[in-house]
Amino acid sequence: MTIYLNNLLKKILPDWIYMKLVGRWDNVGLRRYATNTLWALFSRITSIIVAFFVTIYLVRYLGPENYGQLSYAISFVGLFSIIASLGIDNILYRDLIKYPEKRNAYLGSAFILKLLAGFSATALTMIMAFILSEDDVSRAIILMLSATFIFNAFNVISYEFQADVAQKYMTIITLIVVLTLNILKLMVIFIGEGILYIGIILLFEAVLYATLLIYIHLQHYGSMLAWYFDKGIAIGLLKDSWPFIFIAAFTTVYVRIDQVMLKPLVDSTAVGLYDAAVRIAEVWLFVPAIIVSTLFPAIVNARAVGLSEYRKRLIILAAFMVFLGVLIALPLSLLAEPLMVLLYGPAFVSSAAVFAIYVWAGVWASLDVVARYFLIAENRRVLIFVSSFATAVLNILLNLYLIPKYGIVGAAWSTFISYTLLALPFILIVRLKNLRETETP
Length: 441
What we know:
By secondary structure, the protein is mainly alpha-helical. About 85% of the residues lie in helices and about 0% in strands. Helix 15 packs antiparallel against helix 17.
């Protein structure tokens, strides 16, 4: 498979990109990382395809109101997910590679931190559900889903496999979970049950994933009892991750807040119509992430050539992401109404207006992928923080103003407008570097 991919990339990539990325393809280590990436890509694409068709079937079955209650509950719980994750995942992955001799200490410390955070997030979500959610069905689903935070602590196991470049085991687990869960969803539809059963299935997803992770760890690394908590390591993980905690929190807010605000400002049906459009509009966004993560090492390596070459390649990549976004958004927005009716049925025809607007937000989102990689490479965490914070705040304010006036269309415009801020740091830094280079004698 890697040989085929090598030949394919050699044909389709420019020479400078090919030499930077795959010029030493015969290297055993490179082949190992390439195979690992292919496993991850296979898992992602398969999961998206399976979930895409089952979700369409589920949405058609539930209808706008019931699907809206389910979407609201999922988005409500999602707002508290950052508390459970603590933003330490990337830091843990980095340190497992950097300090392999301290692996048990890092895994044990991260697990305890995430377990305590999971219990805290579960308790807080339950309390806020009783305060803010007046709908008994949505509240029941929220209470069920809040327990997933506890089981998610076992996700630290996946980073041990990733650190060992053994993604295929995580791929197998992911595929088992995806197939099992979607089969169960189809069974719920077949027997004619409602959204409470879907809530139970979503809770079971976290339980099944944790169970499979524990099993695979026992098979390859032995008992988790070898892990232990180290106070110094725990403090170090939290210290290094705190910027990512806030960045992830703001990102979660501007991604989830539309669905959460629509229900109290309009109703459950509005949430269902809106979320149905968003799911289709966002289905392609994994493509920019894959392209940028693959090509960005070549962009960074251009620093050795010079700042001008580095900036040129960076701008070319950003321009290509915008071109790709427009290429996808233009035909989809023109076909919005027949597409929504074809996928979801006549009951979701009102989703077309949302889809036609929201799909253009993907242009900014794809450019944001480049901006994030660029800012991380430049160590501009403050700008990532500010842009994420500003986007979240602007989205909330626009929702408060536009949703009462224009309903779900107002929510879509709120997202599109606020997402323009995601690319602003990239534009400002590129301009700033140009000024510096021009003024330097």
